[in-house]
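Shipment paperwork, digital attachment
Item: protein structure file
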Amino acid sequence: MRTDVRWVFGVSVALAGCASLQAVSSGQIGCPENEIEITDDQMGWATHTWTAHCHDRTYYCSAAKTGQDSAQINCREAAAPKATEDTARASSESAKTSDGAPAKKAAVDASAPTTVAGFSLGSGPAEAEAACTGAGQTWQAAGPDHFSCSAPAKSIGLDSTVLARFCDTKLCAVKLRVLSGLHSLSAFSKLSSMLRGKYGEPSDRNGSLPGVCLHNDNEEDCLKTGRPKLSQSWKWPDGTRIDLRVNAQGDAPELELVYVQRPNRVDADAL
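Attachment content:
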């Protein structure tokens, strides 16, 4: 999986075109770009760190801003890994496709989620209502097969409201609207890090930060002037998916986290 350097929040990397983290790391660690695997890609406002792996060796890398249009990339080799980690990585890197290229790592390593924010996917309206009101929140109808909860039954660490969708009386989708306002990029980064830590790297990433955001450490200016629109998705073979998206192209920034268990019945974008 190629990780786009443009996803650095608040750090501008002086590279032409759309360089990948593999390409950025290559010159630092002396390993061909196509033989580098990137993991632990962590994004924060004005920070970016990642781990590069090549030929059973591990390097910790970071991007540090040095000017308005440039950043310094540093990679340091890790201490010798544990034998079990060496074995697991060697097994992963030995897998090849028919043309001899390294096989792609699955985007999601964990099983599909069955609960979200204190609600059980597949539960009935009465159970979902009990979860909401039992947490001291307000439950009310919000349209055909839709109900709202004034806040999550179990906190996600950020203030948010909940919209629940039922398919054949079973909870099939939950949308969390995060009330982060002009801190939506920081909140997006926090949720992305949490999801990647639990489910692995996203299956899909869309959008990139406008140049005004890369050249400005002020998140509010980035949202108001650059009006970024970003999304990440995690998908499972049974059709379950998670969508994380931030959109600052309207009157106010919107940050949403959507869990869908029955995609054949639910349009996540229209939830």
